[in-house]
Write a structure and sequence with these properties.
The structure is a single chain. By secondary structure, the protein is of the alpha/beta class. It folds into 2 domains: about 80 residues, Orthogonal Bundle (Arc Repressor Mutant, subunit A), CATH 1.10.10.10; about 160 residues, Rossmann fold, CATH 3.40.50.10490. It is built from 12 helices and 5 strands. A 5-stranded parallel β-sheet has the order 2-1-3-4-5, sandwiched between helices. Helix 9 links the parallel strand 1 and strand 2. The longest helix is centred in the middle third of the chain and has 19 residues. It is globular and about 70 Å long. The chain starts with 7 loop residues before the first helix and ends in a 7-residue tail after the last helix. The relative contact order is 0.12.
Length: about 290
């Protein structure tokens, strides 16, 4: 089973503790508008981070690159992967497809995605996000994109049972701006955004942040531009042998988060579950077999 190579952002995060002060300053600068921030000339990259050009050279070599041109070539490949459409993704996989059955190839890719995703999760950040979502004195708003709205809907349905004050923003509607009216400082906006990142989602994040909201972002290994405004970011590996991306790794994170939030709010959640079951019985929503 072959894992996908680490992104440069992941290399920076993994190496951060071993970097010098100037190199950390450079890493922060690169991650602010990643990956575009690293595509300027070496002089411009150094100037933006307020470090010397030798610092840039030393850091990219610490990341495993032969030099700055090699580093930029890797960034360009990542950028191409971010903006690739379904046809391009399909052709990329077909060119290197082995003879194994698609079930085995797809499963290997998904398992590799999960393993690499979990190595990048910061448990303290995960716990902090769960604690934020469990604060019933603040509202939670959930939004996804064209594809990720399925994840947003799944997360919303569970969180709505676990606690009150949860709203699903319908991002496909032009009325999403209306949801910003009632956002208060400290409210939590959960955003799902993967490659071919959506402009409306970025605008929503910026405007919610301006109103004092805290943002939890679920994204891919290349990181949505929304991460600039996020308090907590969770990156899931999504590439599989298909024209479409896989959300399995992201689903694992959000299901674990649902389980943890439920533990924080269990007394309240249990009451809500019991009340909901009573309403299901009254409406005969589900078939009874006994």
């Amino acid at each position: 089973m072959t894992d996908q190579p680490e992104t440069i952002a992941e290399r920076l995060q993994n190496a951060f503790d071993s970097l010098t002060r100037a190199e950390r300053q450079l890493a922060d600068s690169l991650l602010q508008n990643y990956p575009v921030s690293g595509l300027a000339s070496i002089t411009q990259v150094a100037k933006a981070a307020e470090v010397s050009t030798p610092t840039v050279v030393r850091m990219v070599q610490k990341l495993g690159f032969s030099g700055f041109p090699d580093f930029q070539n890797a960034l360009r490949r990542e950028l191409e992967a971010q903006i690739s459409d379904p046809i391009t993704k399909h052709d990329t996989w077909v060119e290197s497809a082995p003879d194994a059955h698609i079930l085995n190839r797809f499963t290997d890719a998904v398992m590799g995605n999960i393993r690499q995703t979990l190595t990048q999760i910061d448990p303290e950040q995960f716990d902090r996000a769960c604690a934020m979502l469990a604060e019933t004195n603040h509202s939670v708003l959930v939004v996804g994109g064209r594809i990720t709205r399925a994840l947003a809907d799944y997360f919303f349905m569970h969180m709505q049972v676990a606690r009150p004050g949860v709203t699903h923003i319908q991002s496909m509607s032009n009325a999403w701006v209306h949801y910003l009216l009632d956002i208060k400082p400290g409210d939590v906006v959960v955003i799902f955004d993967v490659r071919r990142y959506e402009n409306s989602t970025l605008r929503l994040a910026k405007m919610a942040k301006e109103k004092g909201a805290r943002i939890v972002l679920f994204t891919d290994q290349w990181r949505s531009p929304v991460h600039e405004f996020a308090d907590c970011t969770f990156c899931g590996r999504i590439a599989v042998p298909s024209a479409w991306d896989s959300n399995t790794a992201l689903m694992l994170i959000l299901e674990a988060m649902i389980a943890e939030v439920q533990e924080h709010t269990w007394d309240l959640t249990r009451q809500r579950m019991e009340e909901l079951e009573g309403m299901f019985d009254r409406t005969r929503f589900f078939r009874k077999f006994t």
